[in-house]
């Protein structure tokens, strides 16, 4: 894709410093809530009210608090965590695969109605998922599948935005010459897709996966509409339940905070782990 | 139970979404509607030997234990229980969806103030003709019976579960030290507010975020916010002299800075109580446990007195919160469902469990016979506070009725009250706005408003 970045010798040190300062300020702005979460999750319930939110106070209780949360109500939180991983992991993976195939097909095959299909999918990007929750609920009710894992998982397996991104990226990064060459060498269309296209599209697919993973992880409304059984809840809905029960059980206030901290850990891990795929496209230098 | 904080948006969405279903509004005395309510005469038990399975949802902590007890003793009527989030936190939205999809199951919990909304969605079965209900409904106080019948003769759209009759929690230690007695009338309350202010304290808190609390106070004074004519036309009147009297009373206290104006029933309130800032708290039975758990420093210092009255020697009350268990119109076994509900919220053993695990103050009139509710409470200085609330419960005005769009009405009220306590509006104007907005919302849902 683009050439490796060159550091320009003509850069003004003042503007570099300014940019850095700007970035630091923004990083601080975005990290402050996380910092608050870490600090607050390590306090005792008594310290929660009594002390300032942005600095530690009293004994460092984080490990104890985490153990309390994980053990509460027969390990319900772990179940929610597992549900979230299931919904977001499987949903994200399937959605990515579907998006990759659809995007590749739309970019590389010419067939009647191609633009119409693409436009319909684009329209799908514009419809907020919240608006679809109720129709989905009615559909799932028809087949008696509400209040099951599938009720959240199936709708999570599609990502119109992913298809859009995959198409744009496939058009730009999978050269027709490579596909031609593969065909000449006798590779089937499937093989061409999985062996060549998917690899070339990897950075885009990682993006699609992460977007979808985060979207499902943070999804609240769909599970709220679909699920009644608390053992099927994802973390978002679980924490909401705890939050609404605080007046009856004040311990839950701290649990919600610690739970919120725990709930962002998998997201951070996913980002750190997948970040390296963004560094460069594999196709660089593939065609001369 | 208590009123909403977070899930308003959802509930509003629910209200909007349900619009479609409510086109043919049938208010207090309306017709049951297609596929709607079960005809009263059709409530027959399943043939002997049939095993009946029922579903039941609520958000009362520990309700599973009550259900377990029933299941042990009733092998032929087994109840599957699901604990859900609070009504306004999402469950009302779920109910509305389930009514549309026809998947409500058999039994669900609904607060009194949301009952009309689900009645209008044709979601509720009339179980008045079910034998266990017909036999036992007189065990509930009159005001709750009116609430669940919507004034229809012989109709019962829900079994009263718990109630929230208002009383006055007060700091007995501070009152004794100041040589004061808890106020018997609102005039006395206002006088004491000035005296307490002079001593550096505040008599209480006007909770801007708890519109149902204000509603209960207006209720006590005989307000009639919602009435339904014979032709099914609703009338909304939130600016009647009774309500305005209550509003002006609090407006004066707010203007004189003699009451706190912080969010109620949450951390902010508990901190204020912990600091000994507020000398009284107008609350419901369920508030007792919250104060006890959240304000440990008040141990032995609090007591409960009757709610102040508008006229000396008066005996009027209002209810803050409280809920019912309904049998859904889609239930295949209304008889068994009604039988379970009457047991779960009428049988002493069940009531004892509900109180122990869920902190419920039962609607049933036998409540003070329960051992747990006839014991002195150490936190409240050895007082048997429940007899106060039982008395208050008998005094709740039976003619107050809720509107069909309370979630929306509450939203307008709490937003307005929030401005009022900041001096940006007057309580009376807020009520006028809320009335206009409520009528607008009802019209938008094709409900006839006069």
How would you briefly describe this protein structure?
The complex is a heterodimer of chains A (288) and B (450). Chain A has one domain: MetI-like (MetI-like fold, Orthogonal Bundle), CATH 1.10.3720.10. Helices cover 73% and strands 0% of the residues of chain A.
Task: Walk me through this protein's architecture.
- Chain B: It comes from Pseudonocardia humida.
- Chain B: Keywords: Cell membrane, Lipoprotein, Membrane, Palmitate, Signal.
- Chain B: InterPro entries: Bact_solute-bd_prot1 (IPR050490), SBP (IPR006059).
- The complex is a heterodimer of chains A (288) and B (450).
- Chain A is mostly helical and 288 residues long.
- Chain A has one domain: MetI-like fold (Orthogonal Bundle).
- Chain A has helices at 13-41, 45-50, 62-108, 114-126, 129-142, 149-156, 160-173, 176-184, 189-200, 202-218, 221-226, 235-244, 251-274.
- Chain B is α+β, with helices and mostly antiparallel strands.
- Chain B folds into two domains: 8-163 and 321-368, D-Maltodextrin-Binding Protein, domain 2, CATH 3.40.190; 165-318 and 401-444, D-Maltodextrin-Binding Protein, domain 2, CATH 3.40.190.10.
- In chain B, 40% of the residues lie in helices and 12% in strands.
- Chain B is built from 17 helices and ten strands.
- Chain B has helices at residues 8-18, 63-73, 91-101, 115-120, 131-136, 142-149, 172-177, 186-198, 211-220, 241-255, 267-274, 285-294, 334-344, 348-358, 385-394, 406-421, 427-444; strands at 52-58, 77-83, 107-111, 159-165, 167-171, 226-228, 234-236, 280-283, 302-306, 319-327.
- In chain B, helix 2 links the parallel strand 1 and strand 2 (77-83).
- Chain B starts with 7 loop residues before the first helix and ends in a 6-residue tail after the last helix.
- The model of chain B is unreliable at 1-41 (pLDDT under 50).
- The interface between A and B is medium-sized, with 24 and 32 residues.
CATH architecture of the largest domain in chain B: 3-Layer(aba) Sandwich
- Amino- and carboxy-terminal Cα gap of chain A: 12 Å
Low-confidence stretches of chain B: 1-41
Oligomer: heterodimer
Mind describing the biggest β-sheet of chain B? 5 strands, mixed
């Amino acid at each position: 894709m683009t050439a490796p970045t060159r550091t320009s010798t003509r850069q003004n040190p003042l503007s570099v410093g300014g940019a850095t300062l700007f970035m630091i300020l923004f990083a601080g702005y975005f990290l402050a809530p996380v910092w608050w979460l870490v600090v607050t999750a390590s306090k005792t319930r008594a310290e929660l009210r009594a002390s300032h939110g942005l600095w530690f106070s009293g004994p460092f209780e984080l490990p104890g608090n985490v153990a309390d949360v994980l053990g509460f109500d027969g390990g319900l939180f772990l179940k929610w965590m597992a549900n979230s991983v299931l919904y977001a992991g499987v949903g994200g993976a399937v959605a990515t695969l579907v998006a990759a195939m659809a995007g590749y097909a739309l970019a590389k095959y010419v067939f009647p109605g191609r633009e119409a299909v693409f436009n319909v999918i684009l329209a799908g990007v514009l419809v907020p998922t919240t608006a679809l929750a109720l129709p989905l609920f009615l559909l799932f009710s028809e087949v008696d599948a509400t209040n099951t894992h599938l009720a959240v998982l199936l709708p999570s397996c599609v990502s119109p935005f992913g298809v859009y991104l995959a198409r744009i990226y496939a058009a730009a990064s999978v050269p027709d010459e490579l596909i031609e060459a593969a065909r000449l060498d006798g590779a089937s269309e499937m093989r061409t897709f999985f062996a060549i296209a998917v690899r070339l599209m990897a950075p885009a697919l990682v993006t699609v996966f992460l977007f979808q993973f985060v979207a499902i992880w943070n999804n609240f409304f769909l599970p709220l509409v679909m699920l009644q059984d608390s053992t099927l809840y994802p973390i978002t809905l679980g924490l909401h339940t705890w939050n609404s029960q605080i007046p009856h059980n004040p311990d839950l206030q701290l649990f919600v905070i610690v739970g919120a901290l725990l709930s962002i850990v998998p997201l951070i891990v996913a980002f750190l782990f997948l970040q390296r795929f963004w560094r460069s496209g594999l196709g660089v230098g593939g065609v001369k | 139970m208590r009123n909403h904080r977070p899930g308003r948006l959802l509930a509003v969405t629910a209200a909007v979404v349900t619009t479609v279903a409510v086109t043919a509004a049938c208010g207090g005395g309306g017709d049951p509607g297609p596929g709607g309510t079960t005809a009263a005469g059709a409530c027959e038990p399943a043939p002997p030997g049939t095993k009946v399975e029922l579903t039941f949802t609520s958000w009362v902590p520990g309700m599973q234990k009550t259900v377990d007890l029933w299941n042990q003793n009733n092998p032929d009527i087994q109840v599957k229980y699901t604990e859900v989030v609070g009504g306004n936190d999402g469950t009302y939205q779920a109910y509305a969806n389930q009514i549309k999809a026809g998947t409500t199951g058999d039994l669900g919990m609904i607060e009194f103030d949301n009952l009309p909304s689900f009645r209008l969605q044709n979601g509720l079965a009339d179980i008045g003709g079910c034998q266990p209900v017909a036999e036992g409904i007189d065990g509930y106080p009159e005001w709750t019976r009116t609430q669940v019948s919507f004034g229809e003769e012989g109709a019962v759209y829900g079994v009263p579960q718990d109630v929230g009759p208002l009383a006055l929690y007060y700091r007995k230690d501070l009152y004794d030290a100041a040589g004061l007695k808890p106020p018997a009338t609102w005039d006395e309350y206002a006088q004491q507010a000035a005296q307490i202010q002079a001593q550096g304290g505040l008599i209480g808190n006007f909770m801007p975020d708890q519109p149902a609390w204000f509603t209960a106070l207006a209720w006590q004074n005989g307000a009639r916010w919602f009435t339904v004519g014979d032709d099914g036309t609703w009338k909304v009147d939130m600016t009647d002299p009774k309500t305005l009297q209550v509003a002006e009373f609090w407006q004066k206290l707010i203007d004189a800075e003699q009451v706190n104006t912080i969010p109620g029933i949450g951390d902010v309130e508990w901190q204020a109580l912990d600091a000994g800032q507020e000398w009284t708290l107008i609350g419901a039975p369920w508030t007792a446990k919250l104060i006890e758990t959240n304000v440990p420093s008040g141990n032995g210092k609090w007591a409960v007195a009757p709610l102040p009255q508008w006229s000396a020697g008066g005996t009027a009350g209002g209810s803050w919160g409280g809920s019912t268990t309904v049998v859904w119109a889609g239930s295949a076994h209304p008889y068994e469902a009604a039988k379970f509900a009457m047991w779960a919220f009428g049988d002493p053993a069940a009531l004892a469990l509900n109180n122990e695990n869920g902190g419920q103050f039962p609607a049933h009139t036998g409540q003070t016979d329960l051992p747990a509710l006839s014991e002195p409470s150490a936190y409240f200085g050895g007082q048997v506070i429940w007899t106060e609330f039982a008395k208050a419960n008998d005094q709740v005005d039976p003619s107050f009725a809720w509107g069909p769009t309370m979630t929306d009405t509450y939203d307008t009220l709490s937003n307005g009250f929030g401005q009022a306590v900041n001096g940006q509006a007057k309580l009376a104007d807020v009520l006028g706005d809320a009335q206009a907005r409520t009528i607008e919302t009802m019209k938008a849902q094709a409900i006839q408003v006069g």
